[in-house]
Amino acid sequence: MTTPRPAAPSPTDALPGGLGRRFSWRGRQIAWTAFGDGPPLVFCHGTPWSSWLWAPYARALSAQFTVHLWDMPGYGASSMLPEHDVDLGVQGEAFAALLAHWGDGWGEAPHVVAHDYGGAVSLRAALLHDARYASLCLVDVVALRPWGSPFFRLVRDHAPVFGRLPPAVHRGALEAYVGTASHRGLRDDELEALVVPWLGDAGQAAFYRQIAQADERYTAELEPLLGDLDVPTRVLWGEQDTWIPADRAGRLSAALGHAEARLIPDAGHLIQLDAPVALATELRGWLAEVGAGRR
């Protein structure tokens, strides 16, 4: 007998009220939510992820912060229209616009925690689009060349072919790819939550589109500017990250010039799932160090 798959969870199920709010930007609908009490704290996800990865951390910190989660255009619960570019240049501009929209009611700069692509997105927003942060925590981020796994590069070079894969083959390839981001291995429910946004006609096309538009020129633009970042910054990295090796933590720290790098053992690229206690401890410690929290 074949064991039935678990019901596909929504990436927004773990969030109070889901990602029920929308920000309209250049024809895109950016899904977001905010909850809690205290100074603003914004989480940025990467690829091929969504805000679902940060939801437990947002809930845990919502007693001290007004936490904000959002899905990048082309990801998760945000719009995935084929005519819209989703490259890192677009995402950096989108984040800066979203922060300006939120900031009308803040009166203070937010603390930002970013993972994977979210690192380049948050850095571009700050260094190229005048976004201001109270602090920045970079977790296993895309920031320095080279980046992208062998599978990622293969798909990028042949995206139209992969976009035509039969749905079952696409799902198998997607699950295998996502699984390699975890050091400890993913539970069935975790894997399902991570892949479900990329299923169906729109999701499958969006998955290969965002890889096809990946271009290292967007991080090449950042590299000579990293030393100009003038906010308190911490770099965290999974010691067993095979997607973006842990040596990048030291390189990034050196390029920033003022950011301490810390490695988290027994954690791969999906550090949120591999080492949740260690990551939560590091985040709380960092935010306390920069004097953040409910006042």
Automatic annotation (TrEMBL):
Query: Which InterPro entries does this UniProt record tie to the protein?
Result: AB_hydrolase_1 (IPR000073), AB_hydrolase_fold (IPR029058), AB_hydrolase_sf (IPR050266)
Gene3D superfamilies linked: alpha/beta hydrolase
Q: Which SUPFAM superfamilies match?
A: alpha/beta-Hydrolases (SSF53474)
Domain (AB hydrolase-1) spans 41-280
What domain of life does the native source organism fall in? Bacteria
Q: What is the protein's name according to its record? A: Oxidoreductase
Taxonomic lineage is:
Bacteria, Bacillati, Actinomycetota, Actinomycetes, Micrococcales
